[in-house]
Give the backbone structure.
Amino acid sequence: MLAPTPPPVYAIEARGLDKTYRAQGKGEAAHALKHVDLAIPRGAFFGLLGPNGAGKSTFINILGGLVVKSGGSASIWGHDIDSDPMNARGAIGIVPQELNMDPFFSPLEALEIQAGYYGVPKAERRSEEILRAVGLWDKRDAYARTLSGGMKRRLLVAKAMVHSPPVLVLDEPTAGVDVDLRRQLWEHVRALHASGVTIVLTTHYLEEAQELCDTIAIINHGQVIACEPTAQLVGRLDRKTLVVTPQTALAPPIAGFEDVTFAMRPTGAFTLTYKTSDHSVEEMLDRVRAAGVKIKDLSIEEPDLEDVFVELTTGR
Ligand code: ADP
């Protein structure tokens, strides 16, 4: 008997992945991916973050077989997309950006058609289970065109799951989706992740990535410029901002803060931004008091992913 294949370490592994779109008409050639190395661990909730035009969709579409790469290699669940495309394709479900769907099929029909497309035998289809999981069982016989935007989005997630892929990719799934629907969608995706599915999310919403993803790669101009656990990425910025509201209004500048960044806020508070490796909050407070400031209120602001992002992407 064959020994069962152990699960792969990486759900997705790209080595030196390169893509140049050829110039068309008056358009210029675009070097969309520049030798991208990216390894997405099995079981991750992984964020692929980058501004518009960074190359996120190109990366996803190469994995999905919609775009032909110019160089390098990629594998999905250990299956090379060139030498083992059937198994590679079978291991991934991709939820596309657009809400394009055939308006005449009901959710149930849409899932059955998709399952047929993937060659899932009738006895192994899980249409009911999937529709229940995304909260669309009640709507199973409705025309797709009568579904709300959020329902359509959930139907797209359902369609991507018909072949039970171990890897689910969501390409900018919440662009233009309102807050309630976004939350609902994340509940479903979190449940899928908890059940063992590796999730890859592309987004340009920093907050979303910071809240959901355990690991984040930042891609800019076709290059991966960071890839690490979210907490580590956010912790990269070695600085804090002390926000002090004085009891009586100050007339800046105040002496004694030349080695840190001093700024006034319209509220009358002032801020001291300092490197945590050079100064402690204790020391900063002592210095505020030594400057004769009576403190009315106090808070500390820490950098978030947006700060890291700006720091990493500016000047490149
Ligand atoms: P993102 O998904 O991060 O917004 P894309 O992968 O869509 O980025 O685009 C990366 C770059 O490739 C951009 O410069 C874009 O203009 C270019 N590009 C994307 N698709 C095509 C295409 N089909 N033909 C030519 N250029 C393209």
